[in-house]
Amino acid sequence: MRIVIIGNGVAGMEAALAVRAGEPSWDITLISEESDHFFARTALMWVCCGQMSYRDIEPLERDAYTRFGLRRVRARAVGVDVQGHRVLLAGGLSPVAYDRLLIASGSTPRRGPWPGSDAYGVGHFVTLQDLAWYEHEIHGGASKGDGPPRANAHLGATTEGSPYRLRESGAGVHGRLASRPAVIGGGLIGIEAVEVAVAAGLRPSFFIREEWFWPIALEPREAQWISERMRDHGVDVHLDHEVEALEVDPIGAVSAVKTDRGRYETDCVVIAIGVVPNTGWLADSNIERDEHGGIVVDEALHTSAPDVLAAGDCASVRWFDGSRRPEQLWYTARDQGRVAGQGLLGTPASYARGTWYNSAKLMDIEYTTAGLVNRNLEGETHWFFEETGSVRSTTRIVCQDDRVVGFNMLGRRWDHTVLIEWIEQRRSLSWVLPRLHRAAFDTELVPPMQVPGG
Amino acid sequence: MDQQGQNGLLATYRESWRNRGTLGIALSMLLIAFYVVLYWEHKVEAQLGIAPFTALAESVGLRNRWYLYGLLYSVAMIGGAVYYLRRHGNSRYNRARITVNVGIQVALGFSLPFIMPLFGGQELYFSYFWPLKYDYLYPQTLESVPLYFAVYTVVGSLLAAPVLALLYGKRWYCSWVCGCGGLANTFGDPWRHLTSKSERSWRVEKLSIGIVLVVALGTTALIALDWKVGGEHPTLHRIVAGNDWRDWSIKSFYGFAVGAVLSGVVGTGLYPLFGPRLWCRNFCPMAAILGIVQKLGRYRITVKPGMCISCGNCSTYCEMGIDVRAYAQRDESFTRASCVGCGMCAHMCPRGVLKLESTSRRSLRVLDS
Fold first, then answer.
1. Which residues fall within 8 angstroms of residue A72, CB to CB, at 6 or more apart?
2. Nearest CA to CA, how far is B300 from chain A (Å)?
3. Residue A158 buriedness (CB in 10 A; 0-12 / 13-18 / 19+)
4. Overall pTM > 0.90
5. Which CATH code for domain A111-271?
6. Which H or E run contains A421?
7. Of B69, B6, B10, B3, which is closest to residue B190 (Cα–Cα)?
8. Of A331, A80, A51, A298, which Cα lies nearest the Cα of B317?
9. A256-296 pLDDT tens trace
10. What residue spans of A154-311 are helical by DSSP H?
11. Residue A73, H or E segment
């Protein structure tokens, strides 16, 4: 049996390991344009600032591919011949035949819609090549002796416009490092790009279209705190700014961000306005995609094409609310990869996203969420508590019809599994409040939160 | 403000003295040279005619070079503590651990042995126990120290240390009390990311620390035997405890190999190249015993299921070379024998996935009622 997996990320790798665990002798091939090694995309920011090395963000030993007998092809897949059961590759490489195929090609950064978005000094912060670009902009390159092995090995087998091509930096064109970076887009990748610039001793400008930071997850009081922390660290936070254009200087490098509120000089722009499923290369492949570009899959992660599965950011799955969208999270990709691995083995398995949860770290503020938050439910009420004193935190509990349906926590650590259990048990607010400390996951010696009415 | 996690990103690998760059190598060479001269000053003196540390000690009014070493040790710990706390002192656990550790070392490790002789007493280190302080359980030592100290060291080494490790993990000693651990976590902290995380290094660790443990136990047993019957067996006495450097004995060899080479020259001298816990991880017999006890006790690192993003900050900043991420991404709470409970994995985790705990297991996850 020939198993082919497109994508060397967490979904693809989990699937490969699951197949290997089930079938020691099957032929498994991983196709990746981006990297020789599976790495944690979640950790790009720490490599950029120098907190971690490229090796540190690889979760497996480098000999894992040999040890588990996984063949690798470093090339760009340009299509799937569904009838012929073949994956087509760029660079004139011969197609790879499969018996069962998993597409786990992930996401690709959403391109800037503004004039000047292709100028030197403008980039994203999603791929390994984006990381290399941003490192060049603000540090002049990777840390001493660092960098991924065979960083350029895919350049013979890629296409124009691939998100994994290496970009010339504005710093390279100008002959000096970026000194006034700007970040566009008030989400998680945006704040990461901002933090990295702060760590490099710079004062980045942060352009956010909405009235407050990360409105999909936070409410104004919560976001206010984050903005305050960013400003404390020297970030110019520009809320409610609609970007209109990126100005370009005569040598073709970005020189200013123009918004509806003004013109701001810059020499490096990170566009962080979200990601889209990396499925453009499937345009002619006769595999059904939804209006967002996500590959439509059923509960078992099978696509519309026979023997073809999809998992991770590129797959459009059914959500708890009945809608169909890609889930662009690390752990959902991991879980989907495991289910897809069973599917490749021919074992029945289905993917079901349970109650929503997530976490993040915004500057130095920890964030945990569970359940239905910022969904504008009918008749929802909020219990909000702001803790001040030696520990600063906020707690927001969303209720509907006297039932707790969601939690949004900043500043402390919480065990989301306990919170989810309460949501699923349909507990009331008056039941939850006196027991809130049981969901605490604070570090030892941290004084426990005193809950009013708790 | 009390925070639980990292505050401000680190530029670790971008600093030459911390990324095995030229400066790091030079620092390591300097530290090794320092220890070689310190331990074998008599040979330096024979060659060059000067005993640099003795001369320096005397010029500042210290009795011998070991007092000078104690002073430098304390200064290095305090300086390292300031460096560490400026970065990670936003967490109460880190503040408490470093403050207690430095306090104990400066008070008991440096000041007390310095003060006691002034009042006619011996130099006694209350912060060290057998088998780390390997001679403290030798019957000859127990005979020669005051009774209260003999009781302290026997009860401390054989009863208190293991019982506390059962209750709280070996961290009570390795990260809160011990001088070697204290130096590693202050002066050595800038290099904690350099400890190897490879599976091979784990295999080496298990082998080497096991060998040192057996050698330490064997040496102590032989020395006790010599104390009991050495008088009637002069050959045994010479082999076990002959005190002349040139006339190698088991006792002097252990002191040389474990006390000087492994804990000093290798353990500290290689901080800037292989991380600050080389000694603790691979050679310390006390860490070996407490590690075995820890596996049987209550201490563990609890992993919050499903939340790990595999970033690897925990593994990178584990000074003991534990691949914490390997457990976290499989949602496995765990106890590793080598873990000294410094808490940095939990501190560095950007998703609050990890928690050090030594509560009784039953108290966890009581949800109903």
1. A8, A29, A30, A31, A32, A36, A65
2. 13
3. buried
4. yes
5. 3.50.50.60
6. helix A416-424
7. B10
8. A51
9. 999 999 999 999 999 999 999 999 999 999 999 999 999 99
10. 170-174, 188-199, 220-232
11. strand A70-73
Complex confidence, ipTM:
0.96
Q: Render pLDDT for B254-287 as a digit per residue (tens, 0 to 9).
A: 888 888 889 889 999 999 999 999 999 999 999 9
Question: How many helices (H) does chain A have, and how many strands (E)?
Answer: 10, 26
Name the token pair of B132.
């780390």
List pLDDT tens digits, range B10-27.
999 999 999 999 999 999
A2-108+275-345 and A111-271 share one CATH topology? yes
Residue with tokens 């000067």: B50
Is B72 in CB contact (< 8 Å) with chain A?
no
DSSP one-letter code for A72: E
**Interchain contact B295–A (C-beta under 8 A):** no
Judged by CB atoms within 8 Å, which residues 3-42 of A form the interface with B?
10, 40, 42
CB burial of residue A150 (10 Å; 0-12, 13-18, 19+): exposed
Q: Where are the domains of chain B?
A: 12-292, 295-360
Chain B residues 309-368 with a CB less than 8 Å from chain A: 309-313, 315-316, 325-326, 329, 343, 346-347, 350-352, 355-357, 365-367
- Domain range summary for chain A, segments of one domain joined by +: 2-108+275-345, 111-271, 357-439
Contacts (Cβ under 8 Å, ≥6 apart) of B91: A443, A446, B2, B3, B4, B5, B343, B347
CA distance A271 to chain B (A): 21
In chain A, residues 341-380 whose CB comes closer than 8 Å to chain B: 357, 359-361, 364, 366, 368
Distance (Å, rounded) from C-alpha B339 to C-alpha B301?
A: 9
For CA atoms A433, A434, A435, A436, the dihedral sign is positive
Nearest to B365 by CA among B313, B314, B305, B310: B305
Q: Tokens representing A283?
A: 């345009």
Structure tokens at B204: 């080496």
Q: Which CATH architecture has domain A2-108+275-345?
A: 3-Layer(bba) Sandwich (3.50)
Substitution target in A17, A63, A143, A192 with the highest count of B β-carbons within 10 Å is A143
From A350's Cα to the closest Cα of chain B, the distance in A is 18
Start-to-end C-alpha separation, chain B: 34
| Closest residue, chain B, to A230 (C-alpha) | B8
- Find the helix or strand (DSSP H, E) in which B50 lies: none
What is the number of residues in chain B? 369
How far off is chain A from B167, nearest CA to CA, in Å? 15
- The model's confidence at residue B361, banded by pLDDT at 50, 70 and 90, is low
Contact B93 A57 (CB under 8 A): no
pLDDT at A454 over 70: no
Lowest mean pLDDT of A190-204, B235-249, B291-305, name the range: B235-249
Return left, alpha or beta for A289; rule: phi > 0 is left, psi -120 to 50 is alpha, else beta. beta
- Residue B212: phi and psi, rounded to 5, are -65, -40
Which band of pLDDT confidence, cut at 50, 70 and 90, is reported for residue B247? Answer: low
Question: How many Å apart are CA B366 and CA A408, to the nearest integer?
Answer: 22
pLDDT bin (cut points 50, 70, 90) of residue B366 is very low
CATH of B295-360, one of 2.30.42.10, 3.40.50.720, 3.30.70.1400, 3.30.70.20: 3.30.70.20
Cα-Cα-Cα-Cα dihedral sign, residues B225, B227, B228, B229:
positive
Secondary-structure class of domain A357-439 per CATH: alpha beta
H-helix segments, A33-168: 44-49, 64-67, 128-139
Q: Name the CA radius of gyration of chain A, rounded.
A: 23
